[in-house]
């Protein structure tokens, strides 16, 4: 039977790698599960990161994640590029099953599974990520400095905030929304309507994303009622139609909010179950930034360390726990 680990971390993004680094330095021998496909989290799909502290010239997202992973491994973190497909987190000992059916046991679990941007599902969308297509104005807006025109897709608060932010860099911003009215709060709407750089294409959707020379070459808009199309010559496409936290396997065990994000007892990372902690975008409605994910990853590690110390769970004597049937 496999040993019982002090800490198992689910998720290999910024929050997960930070938690692995902190728990490894605390000699808790963490075991981190990333993903068989999406190793390193969402930052691996980002080209240059300019707003992460300590890199005045910027850093490539994949390079940053490789360095964070190597740093955690240097202090003894063990990492497995595999998926956790089933969990039982309700007891003192937590059971986690990987894709091969192997059951792993842990005294504490840190969940850092992140969230995924909702996509349009159009050809070229993924291929042009970082080449004119983005899901984060705060992350990528500066790259559009002195460029011509940008389009933002969405009608909620996030879309309006993205559009307003992007007016700092673009000549114009066109908001594309499938409905005739926005879903954003009135104060956010009013701010966007008052901005001379922002135009609106209501009752419209993106029908096509064009590619020119490996970069975004414009989009085609389609009227949702008439089907009529028109070209929009833009150099940037920002998609702000929401996020989906990756919490499906925790439903029914952990308390989730109305949008399926894991609920924690802020300012801590404690979830509704003892010994289970959550960090990063899987708990974050508001910021969803690299630096905030790192911060909560460190907090989750410290919370887990204190939890284990309070229970005397770092002792070397084996703990007996049968796999549930």
Automatic annotation (TrEMBL):
Catalysed conversion reaction: [thioredoxin]-dithiol + NADP(+) = [thioredoxin]-disulfide + NADPH + H(+)
Superkingdom, taxonomy of origin: Bacteria
Biological source species: Streptomyces rutgersensis
Alphabetized UniProt keyword annotations: FAD, Flavoprotein, Oxidoreductase, Redox-active center
Annotated protein name in UniProt: Thioredoxin reductase
Start and end residues of each FAD/NAD(P)-binding domain: 6-297
Protein encoded by which gene: trxB
PANTHER family: THIOREDOXIN REDUCTASE 1-RELATED-RELATED
Assigned EC number: 1.8.1.9
